[in-house]
Amino acid sequence: MRIPRAIVAHTQQLMEVSVATVQNLPSRPRRNRRSETFRSGIRENWLSPAHFILPIFVHEEHDRNEPIASMPGINRLAYGKNVVDHVAEARSLGVNQVVIFPKVRSGASSSKHVLPWV
User: Fold this and answer.
1) Which of 25, 85, 27, 20 is nearest to 56 (CA)?
2) Residue 55 in contact with residue 101, Cβ under 8 Å?
3) Residue predicted with more confidence, 108 or 62
4) Tens of pLDDT along 25-65?
5) Tens-digit pLDDT profile for residues 53-100
6) Residue 1 to residues 4, 18, 93: CA-CA distances in angstroms?
7) Which residues touch 28 (CB under 8 Å, ≥6 apart)?
8) 105 in the Ramachandran plot: left (φ > 0), alpha (ψ -120 to 50) or beta?
9) What is the 3-state secondary structure (H, E, C) of the chain?
10) Which of these, 26, 52, 82, 89, could form a disulfide with 77 (CB 3.0-4.6 Å)?
11) Do the beta carbons of residue 51 and residue 93 sit within 8 Å?
């Protein structure tokens, strides 16, 4: 199906006029952005704690938290109350999701990761 040349020419003229009009405005009209409800509806990018997933590293060896050498400032938490307290703190800050990484005992890991799941 071919589009008649008159329609193509008219469309091109409209595009040129609208581009020129937008570019020559002394200021951008913001009357549609006064309401927070409207702004949140058209916001393209936003990030909040609800979007985060908190990784938690746990162990069952003793009751103390132990630092993870390869991740400065991060601790492997003792399973139990420490984990519950950590999740409660995250929830109070708006983080709603966690993923738990348990420590696998030495020698239990293999290249196919069979033993940790048995």
Assistant:
1) 85
2) yes
3) 62
4) 666 666 666 677 666 666 677 778 888 889 999 988 888 89
5) 899 999 888 888 999 999 999 999 988 888 999 999 999 998 888 999
6) 10, 27, 58
7) none
8) beta
9) CCCCHHHHHHHHHHHHHHHHHHHCCCCCCCHHHCCHHHHHHHCCCCCCHHHCEEEEEEECCCCCCEECCCCCCCEEEECCHHHHHHHHHHHHCCCCEEEEEECCCCCCCCCCCCHHHC
10) 82
11) no
Beta bridge pairs of residue 55: 99
- Residues written for the chain: 118
Residue 77 identity: L
Question: 69 is written with which tokens?
Answer: 């050498």
